[in-house]
């Protein structure tokens, strides 16, 4: 008989519905149930003029940086449609999940940090040091908002940096009443979080009478910065995992559920 560490546990997934499949399947495989509660919707950037221009000028860039799996998902079809990927342009991913998307498109030699999936880890790579990027052209494919740390630091190091928005995030219409009722009934063993924006959505959208219960629920997060933000927001058990769905599933698998 296989071990089912999540048997009897319901885990809340806050990822967009289209991106929740792998995590949901992994939770089911560990014996758990899933409450899918997407708080963001992801859609293509409405004007692709900058993306079309970047595709035509891709060979002018020394590095093409994809800040998330969504950036790769929405940018790569246009970039690859123009022709073969330029040998002089190094594809860069913020983490393993994004790198997986790049490899699926044939970009096997992509650069990415193995330690964490964030801008800080990316900037620590020797290939993006000041001496390596000075006077280099870099394009960053990203969403409609997000942190400016990566671009600002690369520019400070002497690189010429262009932004290309390829997708946008918007708050989804969530069933907060049902979420609050089930939270109050103690049905949720844990929540999962992948972004600071989703954290804000949770805190701002949760029915006020259930905010204490929310903060007492274990929350599993694969990013140091978001773990710190969750603790600052009052979450009592913000648990950091390794990066990606695999890391989050490993964290859920290893957790002592008798403690909850």
Q: What do you see in this structure?
A:
The structure is a single chain. The chain is α/β, with parallel strands linked by helices. The chain has a domain at 60-167: Rossmann fold (3-Layer(aba) Sandwich). Helices cover 39% and strands 18% of the residues. The chain has helices at residues 21-29, 49-56, 69-82, 96-104, 119-123, 130-133, 149-156, 176-184, 196-205, 211-216, 224-232, 244-254, and strands spanning 10-13, 33-36, 40-44, 63-66, 90-93, 137-142, 160-165, 167-171, 190-192, 219-221, 238-240. The protein has a 5-stranded parallel sheet with strand order 2-1-9-10-11, with helices on both faces. It has a 4-stranded parallel sheet with strand order 5-4-6-7, with helices on both faces. Helix 2 (49-56) packs across helix 3. The two termini are 25 Å apart. The mean pLDDT is 92.
Layout of helices and strands:
Elements: E1 10-13, H1 21-29, E2 33-36, E3 40-44, H2 49-56, E4 63-66, H3 69-82, E5 90-93, H4 96-104, H5 119-123, H6 130-133, E6 137-142, H7 149-156, E7 160-165, E8 167-171, H8 176-184, E9 190-192, H9 196-205, H10 211-216, E10 219-221, H11 224-232, E11 238-240, H12 244-254
Parallel strand pairs: 1-2, 1-9, 4-5, 4-6, 6-7, 9-10, 10-11
Antiparallel strand pairs: 3-8
Number of E strands:
11
Query: So, CATH architecture of the domain at 60-167?
Result: 3-Layer(aba) Sandwich
Share of helical residues: 25-40%
Quaternary structure state of the chains depicted = single chain
What profile does the largest beta sheet have? Answer: 5 strands, parallel
Order of helices and strands: EHEEHEHEHHHEHEEHEHHEHEH
| Span between termini | 25 Å
């Amino acid at each position: 008989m296989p071990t089912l560490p999540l048997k009897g546990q319901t885990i809340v997934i806050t990822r967009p519905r289209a991106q929740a499949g792998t995590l949901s399947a992994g939770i089911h495989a560990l014996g758990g149930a899933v409450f899918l509660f997407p708080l963001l919707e992801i859609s293509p950037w409405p004007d692709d003029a900058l993306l079309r221009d970047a595709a035509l000028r891709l060979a002018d860039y020394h590095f093409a940086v994809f800040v998330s799996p969504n950036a790769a998902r929405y940018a790569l079809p246009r970039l690859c449609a123009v022709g073969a990927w330029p040998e002089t342009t190094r594809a860069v991913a913020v983490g393993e999940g994004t790198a997986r998307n790049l490899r699926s498109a044939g970009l096997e030699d992509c650069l990415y940090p193995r330690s964490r999936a964030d801008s800080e880890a990316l900037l620590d790579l020797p290939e993006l040091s000041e001496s390596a990027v000075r006077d280099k052209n870099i394009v960053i494919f990203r969403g409609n908002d997000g942190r400016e740390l990566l671009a600002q630091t690369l520019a400070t190091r002497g690189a010429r940096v262009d932004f290309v928005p390829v997708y946008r995030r918007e708050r989804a219409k969530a069933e907060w009443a049902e979420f609050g009722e089930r939270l109050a009934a103690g049905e949720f063993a844990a929540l999962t979080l992948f972004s600071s924006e989703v954290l804000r959505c949770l805190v701002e959208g949760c029915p006020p009478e259930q905010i204490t219960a929310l903060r007492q629920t274990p929350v599993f997060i694969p990013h140091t910065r978001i773990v710190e933000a969750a603790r600052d927001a009052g979450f009592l058990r913000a648990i950091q995992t390794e990066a990606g769905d695999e890391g989050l599933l490993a964290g859920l698998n290893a957790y002592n559920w008798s403690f909850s």
